[in-house]
# Entry
Amino acid sequence: MTQSEFIILNFKEIRRKSLKLWKSLPKNYYNWKPDEEAMTAIEMIRHVLEADYGWNIIINNGSMKSYKTPWKNRPFISVNDELDFAEPYRNIFLERVKQFSDQELSEIEIVHPGNGSKKNLGNYLLRIGYHESVHAGQFLSYLRAMKINRPEIWD
# Structure
């Protein structure tokens, strides 16, 4: 396997676990949040899904200065609706990652627009996976606080 194939395998495994968590959320808990400063459960799901669109811009050295999200003004309907809307953006992102050679993963430098830190592309992509994993952990905490049975994600 190439490095990009391993990275994609990791992305897909992380997403498989996220999907189990998100699909366990009852609709009447979509707007639940642990405190006023936090995202609601459905906002967190959208945040993770929407990130694929932004990551794709960043890894292609696009500018985030005039970033416009396709999710702007889109109502929250359901988890499945969010997943359906996000699927083409996820596929574009994964397809782009697949195209990177091992050399490109080592040599291309990415500057994260939020904090200006510089990382090689391979390192940056692994951090993208970590971002979703952190939110999966947060989501598990949300489900626990809601007293909702948490799905088994470790199979």
